[in-house]
């Protein structure tokens, strides 16, 4: 457990005022992002059959919450880590056309998460996915989409300021782009997290690109990324410098999804070629799924960012160790 207590912290809003602000941010943001990216809201599963290969493997070491059910004997059911693969399958199944997309409210349990100001075992995010043409699988498409998302977040800052001027946390006016290799070249002596903190503090908002592959000097990836949804050359994380906690906060992980060629390559690099026999992977390798771009946008993280909160537990209900709860209470941090 890691906990940062801001000096002289003032939550600005009461718990009930915070709850009202959360509702406003969530409802307004999803309407605006769906218009900006041409997305339709769709229902999504909380759990999937392990045998489908639809669950997100994250870094490959986190264990999903799993169970069996009477109606499906012999099947292991897993609570989703994210909907990265399911969304691409859903776009095909539901007949979405070129440049059409979906978003959904994704709720996950990540029981192995290390708890701190930003991380909970409960994950709530807007998961979204959009059909693109194969020739649009470019860095230009990725950057354009990141700028669209950033524009909506900036507009939300103004909306929240109008309703809660005493509480809003002000954001930079533009987002910058940098690759993980450029970060390593600039600060080879630092860890990936330290590099992210440096660059986020320098720019205020930054999209760190190309996550998953090995870097030249360290021969290690900047961060783990599953090999079977993002293309490691065309993905990234949207980070903001967060003054209340003096660190970067990640709001979105997103990217252009793997093609047949890039998935074969990445499965080999990840020593996970056995996944090619799973139903989802077979469909993709057979060219039966659309080319897409997609990602997740943290709902609680966004509320935390816009309201200047010190702990994600102030904007979501989860479970926390007793010593963390005691420290937060003593500092005026109102855990729900």
Automatic annotation (TrEMBL):
Enzyme class at the top of the EC tree: ligase
Domain of life: Bacteria
Catalysed reactions, as listed in the record: L-aspartate + NH4(+) + ATP = L-asparagine + AMP + diphosphate + H(+)
Major location (coarse): cytoplasm
Coiled-coil intervals, chain numbering: none
Keywords, comma-separated and alphabetical: Amino-acid biosynthesis, Asparagine biosynthesis, ATP-binding, Cytoplasm, Ligase, Nucleotide-binding
Gene Ontology terms: biological process: L-asparagine biosynthetic process
Pfam families: AsnA
GO molecular function, one term: transferase activity
UniProt-listed HAMAP family: AsnA
Family statement drawn from the similarity comment of this UniProt entry: Belongs to the class-II aminoacyl-tRNA synthetase family. AsnA subfamily.
PANTHER family attached to this UniProt entry: ASPARTATE--AMMONIA LIGASE (PTHR30073)
Protein name, as recorded: Aspartate--ammonia ligase
Lineage, opening ranks: Bacteria, Bacillati, Bacillota, Bacilli, Lactobacillales
């Amino acid at each position: 457990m890691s906990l940062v207590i801001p000096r002289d912290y003032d939550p600005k809003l009461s718990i009930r005022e915070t709850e009202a602000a959360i509702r406003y941010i969530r409802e307004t943001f999803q309407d605006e992002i769906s218009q900006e990216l041409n997305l339709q809201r769709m229902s999504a599963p909380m759990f999937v059959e392990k045998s489908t290969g639809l669950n997100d493997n994250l870094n490959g070491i986190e264990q999903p919450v799993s169970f069996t059910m009477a109606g499906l004997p012999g099947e292991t059911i897993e609570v989703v880590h994210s909907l990265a693969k399911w969304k691409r399958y859903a776009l095909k199944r539901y007949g979405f056309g070129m440049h059409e997309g979906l978003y959904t409210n994704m709720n996950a349990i990540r029981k192995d998460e290390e708890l701190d100001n930003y991380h909970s075992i409960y994950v709530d995010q807007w998961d979204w996915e959009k059909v693109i043409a194969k020739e649009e699988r470019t860095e230009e498409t990725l950057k354009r989409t990141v700028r669209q998302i950033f524009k909506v977040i900036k507009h939300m800052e103004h909306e929240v300021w109008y309703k809660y001027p005493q509480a809003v946390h002000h954001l930079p006016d533009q987002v910058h782009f940098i690759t993980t290799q450029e970060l390593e070249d600039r600060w080879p002596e630092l860890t990936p997290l330290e590099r992210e903190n440096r660059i986020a503090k320098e720019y205020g908002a930054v999209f760190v690109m190309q996550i998953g592959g090995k870097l030249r000097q360290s021969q290690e990836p900047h961060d783990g990324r599953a090999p079977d949804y993002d293309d490691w050359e065309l993905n990234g994380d949207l980070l903001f410098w967060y003054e209340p906690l003096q660190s970067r906060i990640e709001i979105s992980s997103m990217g252009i999804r793997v093609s047949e060629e890039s998935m074969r390559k990445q499965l080999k690099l990840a020593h996970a070629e056995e996944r090619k026999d799973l139903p989802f992977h077979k469909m993709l390798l057979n060219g039966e799924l659309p080319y897409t771009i997609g990602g997740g946008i943290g709902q609680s993280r966004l509320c935390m960012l816009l309201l200047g909160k010190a702990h994600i537990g102030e904007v979501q209900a989860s479970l926390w160790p007793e010593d963390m709860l005691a420290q937060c209470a003593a500092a005026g941090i109102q855990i729900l």
